[in-house]
Amino acid sequence: MSIYARRGVSAQKEEVHQAIRQLDQGLYPHAFCKMYPDFAGGDPNFVNIMHADGAGTKSILAYLYWKETGDVSVWKGIARDAVAMNLDDLLCVGVTDNLLFSSTIDRNKLLIGGDILEAVIEGTREYFQLLAEYGVNIQYLGGETADVGDVVRTIAVNGTMMARWPKSKIITNQAIAAGQVIVGLASSGTCAYEPSYNSGLGSNGLTSARHDVLSKHYATHYPESFEPGLSEEVVYVGHHRLTDNYTVDGIEHSIGQLLLSPTRTYAPVICQLLREHPDVVKGMIHCSGGGQTKCMKYLPGPMKVVKDNLFPPPPIFSLIQQNSGADDREMYQVFNMGHRMEIFAEETAAGKIIDLAAQFGVDAKVVGKVQPSDKKELTLQLPEKSIHFEY
Amino acid sequence: MSIYARRGVSAQKEEVHQAIRQLDQGLYPHAFCKMYPDFAGGDPNFVNIMHADGAGTKSILAYLYWKETGDVSVWKGIARDAVAMNLDDLLCVGVTDNLLFSSTIDRNKLLIGGDILEAVIEGTREYFQLLAEYGVNIQYLGGETADVGDVVRTIAVNGTMMARWPKSKIITNQAIAAGQVIVGLASSGTCAYEPSYNSGLGSNGLTSARHDVLSKHYATHYPESFEPGLSEEVVYVGHHRLTDNYTVDGIEHSIGQLLLSPTRTYAPVICQLLREHPDVVKGMIHCSGGGQTKCMKYLPGPMKVVKDNLFPPPPIFSLIQQNSGADDREMYQVFNMGHRMEIFAEETAAGKIIDLAAQFGVDAKVVGKVQPSDKKELTLQLPEKSIHFEY
């Protein structure tokens, strides 16, 4: 049993796929999000999408950081995580504007006060204001905040997005084909719409990252931050406190800030890309749960994905790996390891995408290519080793 | 500090209202749900609504019942609760058809297996099939199921509904006025679209109901079912096991079945009512959190609501009150006590509503009236006492 499974999480979500097998899976089997007929508008040229996601266990990191530093503003970052995890999934099907959003917040009122609710809700509102400046308009139509301390140990921050979008502008991944290249958009750094350095971690693998990096101090002092039935061997087995410093490119950051960097959205980049060059994108993958293997779920047929020019993993991933001792195979299956968005395109179009990302301060490069094959397979060619997956 | 507050819940949600005060509150200040311009369709004659709600702590009751009886089907009822709590809110603004639904399920994978996820999702799907037979069409557009055992002790089942609806058919509560009567639709009994007796409890006040009715057995054997920081004096202070029997109208039911009766939706009744008699409904209130005082939040101006012909409280509420010793004032503020939906109408139209409800086996009657006043006030005239509220 993997350490991941022993912590009660599963990167592949086999049970969930089994549970939903009787549901309508939508119009386009390989699209990143399920798309349905335009029930809301009745127009055969439109699709409807409802998408749900959230900050997951990253809210626990925010809780611990807030408890240790008193800094309530960290909760605004959790709001951004909940939004970006939805929004960046929707970008992958071509939706970049005119979205509706509703939040669902479940809290333990004994531990989570009104000031935190206010930070989450205000953080969401401010984030939408920022995104609107880049042409990404999201309407905040309210939501539900429930006091359910007997269910929730601390707080769960989730959101649901709805889009009605013209079929002429959707991306179904059906056009992904051998011969194309993959442009990766970096998950770390400081881009034009971020106020400070982003570690690149995003909001996936946070259960692992938290337990692997943080020390037993957190098990002792914050029993409300983990399931008590977990084996002691998998609970807070790292060496750090959130307030410890870690140097990135010569600059010191607290480990808390690195772990809590709000998930970078690529919406400003993708919005402009699809407006200026609507035909270059043949497919798009948000490297969320499943990390660098995520693309394999959405290939439209047998082909081989070779990623042989990946970004060097940002320092946060080295920190996690140093603490956990996980091998590269596991790291690349759980974390994005450097780019959280990848665009499939013809080789001749790659330059346009890279140049446009650069305008927003987002590093981008060709990270791989698609080759012919008689099965779905993936090779991650790292500097010193090759990792292979078959599906 | 009330026992309700000591359990970390608040019927009035003061902190939530404070936290959302800067959000756009929608087009119609007195409407039961927030309604917004038609961002999705751009038609000035339509509104958009996104609504989020869930089964709350009722999922804990399902967990305990499932643990003690092995009956997985109880989770299908939780699915119905999560749907009905959304749907019946939307009924109050006149939305009865063409809805979109997305579910958000957070689970502790160590305790909640794939069979339970499947029951929740299949229960949702089956419920939509049933409702479609009554002209209430809800499209299930997927959702998110997350393994977050460090956040969620057992399982949280939430859902979000989206509607795009013509302004010509909405109900804003603006037409509620002195001189009208209030028709209440019973929350208990067995109506035409329910397979068995419904206790009428719904999905509000379940934290209280669970702790007040169930015995310390559950604190001892299921520590995962409550917040460990709660005072022992408020945790499982009742006298019963879920498998104990309780007689209602000469028929024995287990207390678990009574507490877990899936929330009755009034959608089939309201759908037909608004189709056949669109002009009779002047306002509509779902007596959810806040119980029989809920209407006071939505009155369009100073007036006095007098409810002087309420249904006798169904036996489940007597059971709760016997165990908790709560006074009537508190009971009527937390629980629906007999009717969970109320329709404001001219006296001459009441008969039409009552007759139509009867066609579905839903008891209905005039439970009260609206009188002139210089302030917003409410009197609940019970057989032996009067309870007064001012706002």
Q: Give the strand line-up of the largest sheet of chain A.
A: 9-11-6-12-10-13-14
User: Distance between termini of chain A?
Assistant: 21 Å
**Helical residue percent of chain A?**
25-40%
The share of residues in extended strands of chain A comes to 15-25%
Structural class of chain A: alpha+beta
DSSP strand tally of chain A: 14
The greatest interface between two protein chains, and residues involved on each side, is: A-B, 80 and 80 residues
Q: Low-confidence runs of chain A (pLDDT<50, min 5 residues)?
A: none
Mean pLDDT of chain A, as a whole number?
96
Shape of chain A: globular
Multimeric state: homodimer
Backbone CA Rg of chain A: 20 Å
Sheet having the most strands of chain A = 7 strands, mixed
Number of helices of chain A: 12
The arrangement of helices and strands of chain A along the chain is HHEEHHEHEEEHHEEHHEEHHEHEEE
